[in-house]
Design goal:
Helices cover 47% and strands 15% of the residues. With 202 residues, it is α/β, with parallel strands linked by helices. Helix 10 (169-177) links the parallel strand 6 (162-166) and strand 7 (181-184). The protein is globular, with a radius of gyration of 18 Å.
Amino acid sequence: MQDKTIVFDLGAVLIDWDPRHLYRKVFDNEADMEYFLRHIATGEWNELQDAGRSLKEATEVLMYHYPEHGHHIQMYYDRWKEMLNGPIHDTVEILRSIKDQGYRILALTNWSDETFPVAMQEFEFLHWFEDILVSGREKLKKPDLAFFNLLLKRNNLDPAKTIFIDDNIRNVAAANHLGMEGIHFTSPRLLKLQLAERGVQV
């Protein structure tokens, strides 16, 4: 077993999830789609599901405030699977190399507990992880330090020997604050270099 533990974020690091993959199929133009995602089914609204709010309640809230957009609101979770555009293959290969070398691999993800089982069925590599902490299940989400501390405590991790990879700089900052080695993910190519700098060759 290697000395370090590698913790991965999932969305936009290993999995290409984006509501636009669905809504480009149903909106007539990009401007209308972007208005809907920026002003109605917003990232802030979605984060409440990541924190544990039910999909039923989330949908009802938007339907109440924006009944004229009911058709598009309803399909957000009815057709949620179409927001998954597959794995980010180059990062999955990095994950495979890390696993094969005997590193402990864990995941810390902001994700609804109701939709995460769909991802578990879709992506075989999610079963490689020793543990996955899902925000919607724990009722905590990044960058809340309590969520990171739960990861550390549950898996008996030494922060100084833990590398954390995330595409959101706020989450990386939180990991760094707790003494972990945070990596801001921007591309698989750069991730290989960033890991090598920390003694992890892939």
